[in-house]
Amino acid sequence: MSELRTDTITASDGTSAVTLTKQSAAKHWINMDAGQTINGSINTSSIVDNTTGDHAVNLANALSDIHYVVTGSNIGSVSGLDSGESFVSSGDINTTTKYEFKTRHNGGSYYDNGVNQLHLNGDLA
């Protein structure tokens, strides 16, 4: 097995940017508190708290199409309810620069999680 460790990747001419031809890394991730505060993220311009348990994430860089995959998890509850489930809304709401997701507790009602963690895989435009 080979191992590559590096701090810097430089083009062969020593000055040009390095272009990767095949990128399989996530194109976006976010860790946010109850739809209000971004704790950390990549490729996020803003978030919108539409209503309890209903959120939108705006991307800083557009995707090539709406056929991307968002997955997520959540921790805790700001309302004291048991942790529930999070899911991404249907593709008819998603665009190349925004996706919406909703969270609900195990009883079925929408609620705000203590922390939401999501990441997106797809191709940048």
How would you sum up this structure, described in words?
- This protein is mainly β.
- It has one domain.
- The protein has no helices and eight strands.
- The strands form two sheets. A four-stranded antiparallel β-sheet has the order 2-1-8-5, with no helix packed on it. A four-stranded antiparallel β-sheet has the order 3-4-7-6, with no helix packed on it.
- A hairpin with a 2-residue loop joins strand 3 and strand 4.
- The protein is elongated and about 55 Å long.
- The protein starts with 27 loop residues before the first strand and ends with a strand.
- The mean pLDDT is 81.
Spatial order of the strands in the main sheet?
2-1-8-5
Q: Any low-confidence stretches, pLDDT <50, length ≥5?
A: none
H and E string: EEEEEEEE
Tally of separate domains: 1
Please give the alpha-carbon distance between the first and last residues.
34 Å
Calculate the mean pLDDT score and round it: 81
What's the story with the biggest beta sheet? 4 strands, antiparallel
Number of helices: 0
**Number of strand elements:** 8
Shape: elongated
Q: Please state the structural category.
A: mainly beta
In terms of topology, how is this protein built?
Elements: E1 28-33, E2 37-42, E3 44-51, E4 54-59, E5 69-77, E6 85-88, E7 98-104, E8 113-121
